Amino acid sequence: MVRFREGARLDTSGVQDRRGGGGRAAAVGGGGIGVLGLIAFVLVQVLGGGGGGGSSADVANILAQLQGGGSGTADNTELAQQCRTGADANDSADCAAVAIVDSIQDYWTEALPAATGTGYADTQTVFFSGSVQTACGGATSGSGPFYCPGDQLVYVDLTFFDQLQTQFGARGGTFVDAYVLAHEYGHHVQNLLGTNQRVTPGETGPTSGTVRLELQADCYAGVWANHATTVADDGQEPLITEITQDDVDRALDAASRIGDDFIQTNLGGGTVDQDAFTHGSSAQRERWFSTGFQTGDPAACDTFSTDDLG
């Protein structure tokens, strides 16, 4: 099980807490998903969840409905009081998410310039509950976690991690949460590098740019995971002290349950339609996370220059 260094100091400045209750302001909005507005919710709605098949035009129509903006307000007071040390992260899922964000950004701050010559720009993860407004439009909890290039923020309703277990049947665990967050920060890296500009919004299919973008983000998540126990915090000691094989197995299990084919079969209309793929198959998602984890090299994640996506 993932463990954080007990005495490590957590930095909550990488998080905006917009959840309602406890003095925090709730945000409002409609539905919106993924780095290009696409995640499981769209797959379910478009690929048979509503009783019929879908097309890229259906996806484009949904995206068109998501235009808008806004930000909402955040109050980190309670989170900062609760999440002070690695010991807090070992005891609290909220604090673990804070620690994971810290580790991911500390890694890319050093690794991105070394690998690409491009500097890394810190961004924030927005914790929201129910719904939220973003520069990419409104989103609800049903959207799943996503990255918005418009405001360069990662958005997550932390109850999604419970839904991965109850709705998708994933084993779950802290490292699964870390995989999901690291995937979204992979999209931030892509945005900084301009990779997402190579993708046509609404494009679908097994070899589409949309799929390649998602698989690369999985690979980047694996790259961070490879280095996670050596990434030093401000105290120049690793924030994460242990990742077990069981943690890795759980992440791969989660990856297999958010593949397009799994979602279409189990949460959609029951028929696999590769032409509607937006994230890649279960096997592909496992493969590219594993590629990143095994190599620890961002250069190994070039999904745009291969004809073999798995």
From TrEMBL:
Q: Which Pfam families match?
A: Zn_peptidase (PF04228)
Region of interest called Disordered, as start-end residue ranges on this chain: 1-23
Q: Which UniProt keyword terms apply here?
A: Membrane, Transmembrane, Transmembrane helix
Q: Any keyword Transmembrane? A: yes
Q: How does it sit in the membrane?
A: Single-pass membrane protein
Q: Which InterPro entries match?
A: Uncharacterised_pept_Zn_put
* Entry keyword Nucleotide-binding: no
The record's subcellular location field reads:
Membrane
GO cellular component terms given for this protein: membrane
Q: Which domain of life is it from?
A: Bacteria
Which protein is depicted? Neutral zinc metallopeptidase
* Organism of derivation: Klenkia taihuensis
